Amino acid sequence: MLKRLFTLFALVLFTSPVFAQFEIGASYELRDEDPQSGLGLRVESGILNSVPLINFGLRAHFSYFSDENTVNRDTFSYDRDIQNYDYGVALTAGMGVGLVEPYVGLGLGSETVDLKTSDFQGAGQRPQNDRESNIYWNTFAGAKVTIIPLVKPFVEYRFTGRDLEMPDLEDKTGRIMFGVVLSL
Q1: Which CATH number goes with the domain that contains 166?
Q2: 14 phi, psi to nearest 5 deg
């Protein structure tokens, strides 16, 4: 379902003349679960350009986190690689206030976690490789600063929940992002 949504997003993004502004960006991301740091990419296009004062947009994003843990016990040891990546789409709304453009957004996405075990040594049962995927919703707030019209540094906080039916504040993750957007 999300692949179809991304295909539709790409078709609308690249074929509609209504979308006058296009942004592509990269970020360094910190979150409150392991792995804690990663990199992100985003592509955003303006929509509803006839609405005065408020800049509406449609965004696609991708984030990648990776970490390696070494587990040492009395009878065995092993290395475990954790790779986490997520992607999604969101609607954004922002307002230019001088050089600063604060914005908010709401979206859906998918997250995949891969756990891979290597270098197992010792007695006991070898831990299994594992893969888990979840659909999530997110809401975010941030601000872009227009230092040069084509280059805009930004900071953003994204709150993510994995329970789509009844939000559970325990099943969430927060993430802060620092990055740069190029406006084309």
Answers
A1: 2.40.160.20
A2: -95, -5
